[in-house]
Design brief:
Layout lengths: L2 E5 L2 E4 L4 E8 L7 E7 L6 E6 L5 E3 L7 E6 L4 E6 L8 E8 L14 E2 L3 E6 L1
Parallel strand pairs: 2-11
Antiparallel strand pairs: 1-3, 3-8, 4-5, 4-9, 5-6, 7-8, 9-10, 9-11
Length: about 120
Amino acid sequence: QVQLVESGGGSAQAGGSLRLSCAASGYTFSSLWMAWFRQVPGKEREGVARITNGGSTYYAASVKGRFTISRDNDKNTLYMQMNSLKPEDTALYYCAAGSGGTFGQIRERDYGYWGQGTQVTVSS
């Protein structure tokens, strides 16, 4: 079983930055595909960014150029640096892990392990 614990959410002004972290345990972290999703009440969960076990990244168009996903396999931790934040980035952000995935997409069904989420609120 993989346990995932997110941290780093909070409030920011538009144009500001936040850094999310996700601490993983219970599995060989370096072998996992990892992703960040987000969800706004009343809407479907959206894939934001993904990093493979080999370090290949993919971003949703809405965050490309502003968000950066990375991983530290020595620390079993996933990160997402969020810059140039916009009010529409306000959501509950989830860390997710899976044994594989789909190149060119961030599909919820590829990830079997999920954290509890961390709230990000961006004000204008």
